[in-house]
Design brief:
2 domains, alpha/beta, 41% helix, Rossmann fold, four-stranded parallel β-sheet, 274 residues, 12 helices
Length: 274
């Protein structure tokens, strides 16, 4: 019996299983994962990030391995990581296969929505040998979400809202997005919730027909107030526009990471002005 037990230990060690040492050289293939790693206090372990990893600002100083959709295999290998963390929501599945074919330890972050974020952080922490840091971060986020959910459920009647990601051509936030989750948490009904894609193209006619009570326009390239002038002119008959319930937001909800709480609080702050 003892021989079987020790044989099992050896097999698990050789296969990189539960007894593998916590990774000390981590490469992040997604901006939200980079933010999570920093929030967990693992900055010193990060040896490479994507060119889009700009938060927190000091992440810009880390070596770059390319973009999310086209990371450089050569750059990743050259940094000698002992763990590559990536996400199902943005990284190519083919790159994960390449990593595993090279026997590179890889972790794929599964969370896609705000409600899944705390558990996703705990799972990531377990894979990195940082369970305590992950638990603390996950609990902080869960507590904030529970508080916001309680406040949102008290809203009555439910108002209709729309989150515009880009004005022309118009792209909006649909189901399975952090923006949709945030609107729901705040007791709002996303008028684009019933579409079949996460970021559908939307028409001016459809917005007018559905008549949202409040419109959020997310951060993009350039001056979004200027970029959105044409669209808002077309929507000028809506009460949301006439009564000044059009709000320009930051980019905190664009990444499923610790800053989503800031993003939800930003939306809540605009709503509380009314």
């Amino acid at each position: 019996m003892r021989r079987i037990f020790f044989y099992t230990l050896i097999c698990l060690s050789l296969s990189g299983g539960a007894f593998a040492a916590p990774p000390e050289r981590i490469i992040s293939l997604a901006p939200n994962l980079t933010e999570i790693l920093y929030a967990m206090g693992l900055e010193e372990r990060i040896v490479g990030v994507t060119s889009y990893c700009d938060q927190p600002p000091r992440a810009k100083d880390k070596p770059k391995i390319g973009g999310m959709s086209n990371p450089s295999l050569e750059a990743v290998v050259s940094l000698r990581p002992d763990m590559v963390v990536m996400t199902t929501d943005g990284n190519p599945r083919e790159f994960e296969v390449k990593m595993r074919n090279l026997h590179q330890r890889t972790y794929v972050f599964q969370a896609r929505q705000i409600s899944e974020l705390p558990q996703g952080i705990r799972d990531l922490g377990a894979a990195l040998g940082a369970e305590e840091q992950a638990l603390a971060l996950a609990l902080r986020i869960q507590d904030a979400l529970d508080r916001m959910r309680a406040g949102g459920s008290a809203q009555s009647p439910k108002r209709k809202a729309l989150f515009i990601v880009w004005p022309e051509p118009m792209i909006v936030a649909g189901p399975w997005t952090a923006m949709d989750d945030a609107l729901h948490l705040l007791g709002l009904e996303n008028i684009a919730h019933d579409v079949k894609t996460k970021y559908p193209k939307y028409s001016v006619e459809e917005i007018i027909h559905r008549n949202p009570d409040v419109i959020f326009i997310g951060k993009g390239h350039g001056n979004m107030q200027e970029v959105s002038k044409g669209l808002l002119q077309k929507l000028r008959m809506l009460d949301a526009v006439k009564k000044g319930r059009v709000y320009f937001t930051g980019d905190a909800l664009y990444r499923l990471g610790p800053r989503v709480i800031d993003g939800i609080e930003e939306l809540s702050g605009y709503l509380n002005r009314e």
